[in-house]
């Protein structure tokens, strides 16, 4: 089997930085050939006949049997993924201790072809347990990354090899499935794009650029407290590892892991107090997300989407957090073309789209209205930074050639309204 290896710094498409589009006051430009530059151009490059028009009841069946194994001459694309503990900067001055895939949040983009064999070598360089779940990918059960459900969690300094065939095509993502309440909002999530050579989106809307936007949120107080508590526990475990007598006292009840439901019920009868009981946890402290991010950054540090008049772009939206987000684009309608990786039966025209936790949506934006346009979560909470507006899950759709059409207003960064 031939292996194609990616280094631990996986290739990642970064969003283009915004550019200033001239100076002066906002004014309408001179008369210009609207039909030639927009409607006619978009009609000439789009072909609705390329969209799949029939419903196939068997379409959810994997294209490749998930439990097959690579043959001798099959190409395997290899990715090295390390979990480390580090500090992530959401905004200048807002640095949070997090778990990171290859020092990145979100984790590095994995982009492969449908049907391609993928091997991911997970190395745990932190002091906690971790796995990787391939969200939306039809993998063999052993590769699904559910701790104690499909595999043992990967412990400190341990490694695990994931091997699967990339299917189905579309926008997906990956994330840790161990202590997800903490581990995902504390950084362990990243985009996974499976490309198809027979993509109806590309055929119908021949786009020239695409962007991936992983949407997430975090409670920085919860993360800091949890990471501090785990650091204390890690030191205690290290001390126990050096003392055979203390290790002999360890049992499944300490971890809260049981062979089956009956073993759990038997432990309860013998006086075991589950970790969810108030006797152990004290008063419940609900999480209160206070930072809302696009690709790990909050406004004004989010990257813009760049476009030109007459251009078509594709945006892949990933609901990587715990809350729904309602992405609204000013000045345009867009086409919702895919949901959870799969093309819709027919594209839907919208200007606001709900991205739910665990879901992905692909949209097509057509360059028809020059300017700098807000693209943001329409939930007012999600456009704040620690309660201060504006901030959070907000970016811009920026026309590189806006000045050519008479738009000359420079974007101003606002930290308070």
Gap between N and C termini, in Å?
Answer: 59 Å
CATH architecture of the largest domain: Sandwich
Question: What is the total domain count?
Answer: 3
Count of DSSP strands: 20
Which CATH first-tier class of the largest domain would you pick? Mainly Beta
Mean pLDDT: 88
Q: Low-confidence runs (pLDDT<50, min 5 residues)?
A: 11-27
CATH topology of the largest domain: Immunoglobulin-like
The CATH H-level superfamily of the largest domain is Cupredoxins -  blue copper proteins
CA radius of gyration: 24 Å
Helical residue percent band: 10-25%
Q: Which term fits the overall shape? A: globular
The order of strands across the largest sheet is 11-10-13-18-15-16
> How much strand?
25-35%
Q: Would you tell me the structural class of the helices and strands?
A: alpha+beta
How many distinct helices?
Answer: 9
The biggest beta sheet reads: 6 strands, mixed
Order of helices and strands: EHHEEEEEEEHEHEHHHHHEEEEEEEEEE
Descriptive key words:
Immunoglobulin-like; 9 helices; 417 residues; alpha+beta; five-stranded mixed sheet; six-stranded mixed sheet; 15% helix; 3 domains
How would you summarize what this structure contains?
The protein is α+β, with helices and mostly antiparallel strands and 417 residues long. It has nine helices and 20 strands.
């Amino acid at each position: 089997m031939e292996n194609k290896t990616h280094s631990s710094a996986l290739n990642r498409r970064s969003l283009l930085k915004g550019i200033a589009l001239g100076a002066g006051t906002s004014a309408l430009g001179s008369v210009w050939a609207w039909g030639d530059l927009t409607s006619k151009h978009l009609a000439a490059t789009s072909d609705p006949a390329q969209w799949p028009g029939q419903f196939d009841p068997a379409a959810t069946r994997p294209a490749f049997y998930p439990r097959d194994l690579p043959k001798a001459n099959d190409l395997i694309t290899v990715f090295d993924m390390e979990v480390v503990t580090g500090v992530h900067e959401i905004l200048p001055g807002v640095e949070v201790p997090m778990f990171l895939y290859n020092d990145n949040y979100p984790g590095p983009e994995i982009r492969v072809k449908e049907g391609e064999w993928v091997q991911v070598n997970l190395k745990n360089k932190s002091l906690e347990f971790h796995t990787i779940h391939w969200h939306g990918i039809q993998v063999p059960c052993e590769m699904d990354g559910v701790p104690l459900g499909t595999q043992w969690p990967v412990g400190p300094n341990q490694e695990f090899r994931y091997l699967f065939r990339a299917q189905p095509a579309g926008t997906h993502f990956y994330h840790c499935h161990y202590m997800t309440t903490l581990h995902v909002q504390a950084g362990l999530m990243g985009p996974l794009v499976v490309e198809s050579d027979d993509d109806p989106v590309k055929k119908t809307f021949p786009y020239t650029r695409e962007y991936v936007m992983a949407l997430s949120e975090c409670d920085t107080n919860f993360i800091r407290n949890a990471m501090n508590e785990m650091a204390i526990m890690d030191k205690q475990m290290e001390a126990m590892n050096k003392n055979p007598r203390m290790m002999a006292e360890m049992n499944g009840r300490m971890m809260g892991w049981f062979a089956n439901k009956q073993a759990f019920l038997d432990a309860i009868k013998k006086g075991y107090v589950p970790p969810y009981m108030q006797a152990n946890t004290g008063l419940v402290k609900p999480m209160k997300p206070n930072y809302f991010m696009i690709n790990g950054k909050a406004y004004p540090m989010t990257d813009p989407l760049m476009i030109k008049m007459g251009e078509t772009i594709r945006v892949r939206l990933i609901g990587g957090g715990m809350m729904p987000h309602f992405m609204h684009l000013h000045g345009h309608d867009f086409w919702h073309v895919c949901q959870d990786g799969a093309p819709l039966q027919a594209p839907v025209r919208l200007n606001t789209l709900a991205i739910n936790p665990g879901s992905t949506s692909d949209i097509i934006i057509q360059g028809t209205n020059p300017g700098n346009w807000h693209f943001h979560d329409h939930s007012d909470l999600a456009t704040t930074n620690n309660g201060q507006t504006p901030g959070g899950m907000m970016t811009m759709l920026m026309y590189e050639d806006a000045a050519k059409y008479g738009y000359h207003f420079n974007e101003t960064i606002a930290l308070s309204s």
